[in-house]
User: Fold this.
Amino acid sequence: MPQRNTTVAINGTKFLVNGEPTHSTRTYRGWLIEGILLNSRMANGVWNDDNPRTRGLWTYPDTGK
Assistant:
C-alpha cells in the first residue's frame, strides 16, 4: 500500500488540507468560502463549551443539562 501524506489542520478559523485553505479564493453567491468545510459530517463529534455566557445555548430541553 502506498504511503499517504495528506495533512489536515486549522489555522485561525480556516481549515487547511496539505497546508492550503479549502476552496482557496472561491466564492458562493458572493461569499468567500475559503477555509470552510462544506458538508462536513461530524456525527461523533463532542465539544464542551467552556464559555459560561454561551454554555446554556447547548442544554437539552427535556433535562436542562
Q: What stands out?
A: Residues 45 and 58 are 14 Å apart (CA to CA). The beta strands are 8-11, 14-17, 20-21, 27-28, 31-32. The longest strand covers residues 8-11.
